[in-house]
Queue: 4 jobs
Job 1
Amino acid sequence: MIRSQYFLYFGVLGIFLPYFNLYCYHLGFSGLQIGLLAALRSMTLVLFPLIWGALADRFHIRKPIYILCNFVSTSTWVFFLFTVDFWPMLLITAFYGMFYSPIISFLEAVTMDVLGAEKKSYGRIRAWGSVSFIVMVLVIGRIIDLYSVDIILVLVLAGSLMLAVISLRIPTIETLKKDFLTPGAGSLFEKRVIVFLFCAFLMLVSHGAYYGFFSIHLENLGYHSTFIGLSWALASTAEILVMVKSNRIFNRFSLENVLFFSFLVAAVRWMILFFSESTAIILLSQILHSVTYGTFHMASILYIDRLAPDNAKTLGQAVNNGLTYGFGLMVGFFINGYLYETTGSFVPFLISSLIALSGGLFFQSYQLASRKRT
C-alpha cells in the first residue's frame, strides 16, 4: 500500500513538475510571474507541513489529516480548469498548497514507521515513485507534442483523485499522544540539526533553476516536449539505480559523507548546464540526478530520522521538507525567476552551482570541526 502511494504521488509529480511551469510559459506569463507561482507553492511547504505535522503528533490524527489533505487539494485543483489569468491562479495556488504541502512529509514519516529496523531499505520503496515519474514524463511529453500542454491540468486531476482514494487505506501507526510542543521536539533546535537544515536549504535553493526553469530552458534551446520528457525520465532512471541499492550504499558510507558528496556533484551538474547546449552532454548531466536528488534525498530522510526523537518523527520530517523543499525552493524560485527575466536561462545555473558548493563546504567544515571537538 505504501508503494502505491509513492507510485501515484510521484506519477502526478511527473506530470506537474516538468510541465506546469511550461504551461504557464505558454499562457504568456513572465519569468518573474512563473517564479512567483512556484515560490508560493514552496512557501506553503514551509508553514503548513509544520502545522499539520504538529497537530498529527499532538492529537494522534496522522491518518485523518493525510486523507483530508489529499481530498481537499484534489478538489482545489479543479479551479485551475476555469482560469488562465495570473492573479486567480496565484490564489488557487495558495489554497492548494495549504493542503498539498504536507502529503509527502506524512508519507515519509509513515514509511519510516512501517520499515522499522529496515529503514536503510527505504530506497526500494521510494523507487516505485521514480518508476511512475519516468513513465509519466515520457508519455506526457509525447502527448503534449501531439496535442497541447493544456492537457496536463486534467491528467493531474485524475492522478490526484486516485491518490486521494487510495489514501483511505494508508496504515494506521499507533503512537502515544503528545503535547503540542514536546520536550523531544526541542532537539530539532540543536546545533547539528540547524547546520544540516541550513545546508540542505542551500542545496534546494540551488535546485530552483532546475525545477523552475529547466523545461523552459530546453524549449528555448529548440528542444521539443518529447525530448524534455526524455531528459527528465533519464534523471529519474538514474535515481532509481541508487535507490534500489540504498541498503548497500548506507551500509558502506556514512550519511555525512553521502550528503557531502551529493553537494559536490550538484555543483558540477549545474555548472555543466551553464556551459553546455549539447544534446549528449545535457542528457549525461541528467544522470547526476542519481546523486543530487537520489542519494541526497535518501540520506536527508535517514539523517533527520536519526536526529529526531521518537515523539517528534512526523514533525521532524515536516521541518526537513518545509525548510528545504519549502523555503529552499521558494527562495530558489524567486532568485531564478528574477535571473531568468534579466539574464536569460544560462546564468541561473551558474549561480546555482556556487550555492550548492557553498552548502557542501559549510556542511563538511562543521562535520570536521565536530570530530575534532570529540
Note: Residues 176-181 have pLDDT under 50 and may be disordered.
Job 2
Amino acid sequence: MDWTLYIYKTIFLVIIFLVTLVVAMYSTYGERKVAAFMQDRRGPNRAGPFGLLQPLADGVKMFMKEEIIPTTANKKLFILGPSIAMTTAMLTGVVIPWGGILTIGGHEFSMQVADLNIGILYVFAMVSIGVYGIMIGGWASNNKYALLGSIRAASQMISYEIAMGMSIIALILTTGSLSLNDIVQQQHGMNWNIFYQPLGFLIFIICAFAETNRAPFDLPECETELIGGYHTEYSSMKLGFYLFAEYINMFISSAVIATLYFGGYNMPFIDQLGLSSNLVTLLGSLFFFLKILFLIFLFMWIRWTLPRFRYDQLMNLGWKKLMPLAIFNIMATGAYYYFTVLT
C-alpha cells in the first residue's frame, strides 16, 4: 500500500477545502466592492486596509450573534438543513481537476482529489442533494413564508437541472467522456469547448445562475415577497452556513464552467516556453483560478445589472425556452457528428 499517495491526497483535500472557504469568504467582500463600483460608492473600507478584514468581521459577528431556534420548529431538521447545504457545496470540488501532474520526490501526483470516470454525474448528484438542505430548512422552521421559499427553490432547481443536464449531453457527444479530467485534457491549448458548444455554454451558465439562487433568479430569497426566504427563521452561524453555501456554490459553479468550456487548467502556448513540468502545472493552476475569478465577477456583474424575474417568467424561461434550445442543441450536435465524423 502506497501511504505516500494517501498522505498527499489528504493534504491536497484539506488545501482544496481551505481554498474554497477563503475564496467564498472573500467573494462576499468582492460582491460588495463590485456593487459599490457599479453604484458609484465606496463599499467596505473600514475594517483593515481597503476593508480587507471585513469578511473576518462578518464571521465574528455571525458567531457572536444570539442563536434562536423557534419553539415550534423541528429542532433536529432545523439543524440538519444548513448542514446539508454546506456539506454538499463543499463535496463537489473533489472531482474538479485543479491542475496537471506534480512531481514530488520522484513521485507523480495529480492535482485532483478523485478522478471519477463519471465526474459530471457526481457534480449533478451533489447539486441535486443540495436542494434538500434548503427544503428541509424551510419546512423545519414551521414558517409559511420560509416553506414557500423552499418550495420555490425546489421547483426552480428541478426546472433548471433538466435543461442543464440536457446541455451537457451535447458536450458529452463532442468529448465522448464523463470524466472531467478527460474533458480538460481534450481542450489542450486553445481547443476549448466554448468554440464548439456556444449554445450549450449559454444554456449551462443561465442554469448555473438559477441553481445557485443568484439574481436575477433569487426567487427563493425574494425579500420583497417572502421576508427573507427559506432561511427567515435562522440566525447566528446557521444563517451563515446558508449564506456561505451560496458563495461556495458560486465558486464551484465557476470552476465547473471553466473546466467544461474554457479548458480548465490548460494555458495557451505554455508548452512553447520550455519550462519545467512542475512550473507548467503551477502556472496552469494559476490560470485556472484566473478563469474562475472572471466567472465569479460575471456572476456579480449580472446580479447588479438585471432586475429579478417574476416567478412565472422564471418557470417559462426554464421549461419553454431553455429546454427546447437544449434539445435543438443535442439534435444539431448529433447531426453534425453523424455527417462529418461517422460518414
Note: The longest strand covers residues 101-104.
Job 3
Amino acid sequence: MKRSSPTKGFSLIELLIVVAIILIIAAIAIPNLLRAKISANEASAVSSIRTIQQAELSYTTSYPNGGYATQLSNLGGATPCVPTPGNACLIDQSLAGGTKSGYFFTAPGGNPVNGANTTYVIGAAPITFNQSGVRLFCSTEDNVIRWDANTSKSTTPPSAQQCPNFTALQ
C-alpha cells in the first residue's frame, strides 16, 4: 500500500495569522501616514504664504499706483503669461487659483488710499479639517506668518481682523 504524502500549502489558521499580522501593522502605520501628510501640507502652506508675501512686494513695486494686489488671482496668470496689473505672473496658476496642497488661500488687498491698496492679508485654511490639514495660517503686510490651532475646525481662511490675534510662527 502506498502512503499518501502530506498536503502541500498553507492551512487556514496560518493564513488567518498572516492576515491578522498585516492588519495590525496597517492599524499602526495608517494614522502615522495621515499625520505625515498633514505635516507636509502645513509646511507647504507656510511656504506658499512666503511665496505670496514676495509676490505682493514685487507687485506693489511693479505697479505702485495700485499698491498691493486686489486679490490673489492678480498675482498669477495663465501661461504664456504677459504681466499686467490683473495678471502679474508672479506666482504659479494653481496657487493663484486659491488651492494648493490641501489648503485654501486668499490674499485680498484692503484699506485703499487714492485707489491703491495699502494693506493685505494672506489666509490659508485646510480644505478638509483633520485630513488635509489642521492649523490656520495668515500673514499681513508686516510679513510675519501667524498660525492658530483651529479649535473651531474652520475651513475658511482667516480675515484681516483675526490674523493679528494668531501666534507668530517661530
Note: The chain has one domain: 12-168.
Job 4
Amino acid sequence: MASPLIRTALMVRDLARSHAFYESVLELHGVYLDADLTQTISWKLLGFRPDARLRALILKPKQIDGRPAPDFGMIGLFELAEAAPPCPPRPDGVRFGEAVLVYYVRDLAAALRAVAASGGSLVSGPESFRIPGVEASEAIVRDPDGIALNLVQASEGLAWLETQRS
C-alpha cells in the first residue's frame, strides 16, 4: 500500500516568483527544504546535463487547525531555468492529461485577488454549487508557469478541519 501523497513537484522557471505565488495564494509559509540540487543525482532523475543548475524549495503549511502541519500534501518547486518551455496552457480550460492541483481555501475572493497580484490568471469561475449538505464555490486558476489549480471554498466542516487533520 502506498502512503498518502507526500508532495507534488512542480517544474518552474523562476523560483522566487513561484514561491511568492504559492505563499500568497495557498499560505504555504513553512519550508520543508530549500536546497541547491546541482551537485546531486537530481539531474539524472529529471533528464538534464550533470552541470545543469537546479534549485528546490519545498513548501508546506506551518500549522493546520492550530497544530503543526504534517510532512505530506506539500508543494515542491524545482527551478529548471535551462529546461525547454512546456506546451502553452489553454487560457480558457484544461487539456487532456493535464494535472490540476485542488485546494480548499477559506476565502475564494481573497485567494483570487492573491492569484492576480502574484502573477497568476483566472481560467474559469468562480462558480457556486450545492450537493447534499455542502455549499461551495470554486474557480480554476493558473500559476505564473501555467500550472492549473482548482480553488474550492466550502463549508468549514468539509473543507478545512475534517480533511486536513494529521
Note: Residues 159-166 have pLDDT under 50 and may be disordered.
